[in-house]
């Protein structure tokens, strides 16, 4: 939901499609939270290169 909206905003600003992304998360996120963030990116249609 949030990543989908951010993708739309970025695409409007850049006037280009956004596919590959780097997502920043807080240092205290554990592995399951990081995996959930990657999964959310995939659901939003993004290729999460690095987290």
What can you tell me about this protein's structure?
There is one protein chain. This protein is 51% helix and 14% strand. With 51 residues, it is an alpha+beta fold. The protein contains two helices and two strands, in the order αβαβ. It is elongated. It has one domain: Nucleotidyltransferase, domain 5, CATH 3.30.420.40. It has helices at 2-14, 31-43, and strands spanning 20-22, 47-50. α2 links the parallel β1 (20-22) and β2. This is Heat-shock protein. InterPro entries: ATPase_NBD, Hsp_70_fam. One of its GO terms (molecular function) is ATP binding. It comes from Trifolium medium.
Which helices and strands appear, and what pairs or packs with what?
Layout: H1 2-14, E1 20-22, H2 31-43, E2 47-50
Parallel strand pairs: 1-2
What separation lies between the terminal Cα atoms? 18 Å
Given as residue ranges, the uncertain stretches (5+ residues, pLDDT < 50) are none
Task: Write down the CATH class.
Answer: Alpha Beta
So, CATH architecture?
Answer: 2-Layer Sandwich
Strand order of the largest sheet: 1-2
* N-to-C order of helices and strands: HEHE
- Could you say which structural class the secondary elements and strand pairing correspond to? alpha+beta
What is the approximate shape?
elongated
Helix content: 40-55%
Strand element count: 2
Supply the number of helical segments: 2
Report the major sheet: 2 strands, parallel
Whole-number total of structural domains: 1
Superfamily at the CATH H level?
Answer: ATPase, nucleotide binding domain
> What is the radius of gyration computed over CA atoms, rounded to a whole number of angstroms?
11 Å
Which fold does the CATH topology refer to? Answer: Nucleotidyltransferase, domain 5
Pfam families: HSP70 (PF00012)
Keywords: ATP-binding, Nucleotide-binding
Protein name: Heat-shock protein
Organism: Trifolium medium
């Amino acid at each position: 939901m949030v990543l989908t909206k951010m993708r739309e905003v970025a695409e409007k600003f850049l006037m280009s499609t956004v596919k590959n992304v780097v997502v920043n998360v807080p240092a205290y996120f554990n592995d399951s939270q990081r995996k959930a963030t990657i999964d959310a990116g995939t659901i939003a249609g993004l290729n999460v290169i690095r987290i």
